[in-house]
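Tokens for chain A. Residues wanted.
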């Protein structure tokens, strides 16, 4: 190690620094011990990378502190911010150049023959593979870090309306073909001492369970990227996706140590799906870098937010979507541009009661294309309309009018792939058709029938203005939908600026996984990768870990 050893400020090397807890950290150290890479270097870099995101250590100090050690260990220092004198260092040429020609990556990949795995509760089961022949990476000219004016793909996930069906897990697997158990998308039920989940064979509703849905957080300030010596782990300019270049990754696994969320998987053996079975357009992104689908042997992988979709490789209709979002029956996963207030994840986050009303109501109303013919010969009274048209009740019309009362004209266009704006337009079209038919939806008499007058709710009295009507409409949404009260980012205090926002109960520091209403076995998946590796020459640790949210996750956002 370099002479710049950690001080008391950086904490002793044996101190628990990882948010997932001491057992998790010990397992990570064991994993590095079973490779030929420098264990102490990997652990210390992981610790200090998280200190950088917390603001306790500058980027410059971090890179300077480990530059010599990284150069000695890997022959290059390709981290995002390198030392100013890199060009003068002997041997500072790209490691990729040493892999050119016929030399196999296996000859330079320094890892133990047996390797090690550990059983977890789903926050980061390991999975390892053997290297493939390299190709020189294609650099993206002028690549810059995403900013507030650029697209930032992310998610809002409504935990309280999740039903634990695991459809998102199976859809992600079908799209990306990762080995079963290496769950890029993971759903778990939990208890933490304050909230409990029922027994999986004795419950009244799936919503009695407390769920956590865990994809990669695609952090704007990703510590996993900071420790990568080869630029394999990087943040892509377009969309701010945190990705791994499979042809550049050497499998050092330092990113696994530095990730606070435990979402990285190492491919131990040959993948279940052969390379020939993977479509080129699904593997390579617009820069011709292999960053998607299952990883080759000896390479790290994780959730990627479907870059092949976002780049239009599978058609423009799939841009702005992910497999997990599309497959979710209750629509609790909302994917889109976090920098656009008119996007699905932002609109859902800002008003979950209204968003869920749009989702539910738009599928129950009659089609705007068919409604005019359904109204032919029907009197323009509320009773006549609700009696003649299936799908129209006083309650549904009231909610539709409430949607109209709270309609917002955004300056920004909705991003591609978003559905809330289409669902809202369906509802607005129904209201317009009813008004054109002659139904007096703005009259005091009809509004009173619909429960949309101010004096029927705990709303301002006196002169009724637009804001009063909006308050009444909002109360109508909240009476119809039990909206989540909490909003949080997972491990927000780590400072990674994750791009996944959660709505619902935040797991406490003592959270632990319990069986959910649907088991992974029921849907043909595995809870952890080790179940598939048990018959292979991989050491298995039957250790339990908590959910790893730690005391630092207690603050809501």
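Reply:
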């Amino acid at each position: 190690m370099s002479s710049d050893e950690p001080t008391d400020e950086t904490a002793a090397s044996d101190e628990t620094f990882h948010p997932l807890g001491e057992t998790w950290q010990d397992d990570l150290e064991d994993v590095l011990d079973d490779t030929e890479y420098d264990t102490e270097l990997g652990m210390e870099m992981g610790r200090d990378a998280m200190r950088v995101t917390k603001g306790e250590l500058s980027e410059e100090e971090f890179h300077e502190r480990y530059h010599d050690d990284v150069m000695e260990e890997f022959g290059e220092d390709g981290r995002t911010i390198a030392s100013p004198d890199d060009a003068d260092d002997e041997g500072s040429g790209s490691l990729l150049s040493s892999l050119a020609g016929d030399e196999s990556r296996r000859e330079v990949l320094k890892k133990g023959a047996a390797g090690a795995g550990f059983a977890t509760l789903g926050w980061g089961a390991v999975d390892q593979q053997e290297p493939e022949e390299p190709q020189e990476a294609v650099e993206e000219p002028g690549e810059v870090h995403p900013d507030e004016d650029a697209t930032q793909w992310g998610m809002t996930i409504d935990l309280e309306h999740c039903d634990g069906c695991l459809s998102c897990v199976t859809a992600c697997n079908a799209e990306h073909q990762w080995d079963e158990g290496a769950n890029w998308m993971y759903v778990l039920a939990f208890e933490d001492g304050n909230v409990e989940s029922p027994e999986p064979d004795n419950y009244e509703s799936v919503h009695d369970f407390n769920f956590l849905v865990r994809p990669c957080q695609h952090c704007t300030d990703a510590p996993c990227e900071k420790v990568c010596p080869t630029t394999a782990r990087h943040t892509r300019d377009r969309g701010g996706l945190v990705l791994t270049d499979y042809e550049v990754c050497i499998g050092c696994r330092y990113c696994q140590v530095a990730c606070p969320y435990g979402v990285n998987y190492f491919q131990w053996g040959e993948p279940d799906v052969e390379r020939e079975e993977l479509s080129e357009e699904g593997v390579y992104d617009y820069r011709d870098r292999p960053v998607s689908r299952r990883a080759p042997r000896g390479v790290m992988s994780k959730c990627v937010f479907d870059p092949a979709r976002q780049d239009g490789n599978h058609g423009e209709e799939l841009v702005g979507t992910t497999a997990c979002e599309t497959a979710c029956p209750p629509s609790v996963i909302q994917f889109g541009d976090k920098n656009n207030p008119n996007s699905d994840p932002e609109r859902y986050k800002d008003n979950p009661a209204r968003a869920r009303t749009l989702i539910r109501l738009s599928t129950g109303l009659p089609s705007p294309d068919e409604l005019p013919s359904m109204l032919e010969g029907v009197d323009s009274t509320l009773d006549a309309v609700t009696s003649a048209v299936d799908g129209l009740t006083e309650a549904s019309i009231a909610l539709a009018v409430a949607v109209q009362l709270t309609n917002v004209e955004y300056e920004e266009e909705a991003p591609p792939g978003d559905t809330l704006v289409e669902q809202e337009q369906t509802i607005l079209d129904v209201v317009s058709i009813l008004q054109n038919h002659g139904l007096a939806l703005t009259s005091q008499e009809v509004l009173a029938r619909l429960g949309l007058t101010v004096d029927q709710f705990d709303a301002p009295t006196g002169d009724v203005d637009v804001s009063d009507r909006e308050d009444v409409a909002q109360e109508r949404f909240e009476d119809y939908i039990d909206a989540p009260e909490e909003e949080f980012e997972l491990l927000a205090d780590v400072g990674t600026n994750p791009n996944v926002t959660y709505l619902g109960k935040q797991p406490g520091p003592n959270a632990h996984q319990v069986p959910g209403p649907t088991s992974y076995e029921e849907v043909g998946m595995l809870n952890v990768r080790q179940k598939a590796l048990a018959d292979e020459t991989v050491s298995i640790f039957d250790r339990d870990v908590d959910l790893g949210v730690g005391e630092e996750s207690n603050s809501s956002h």
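Residues 340-480 form one domain. The first strand starts at residue 153 and ends at 158.
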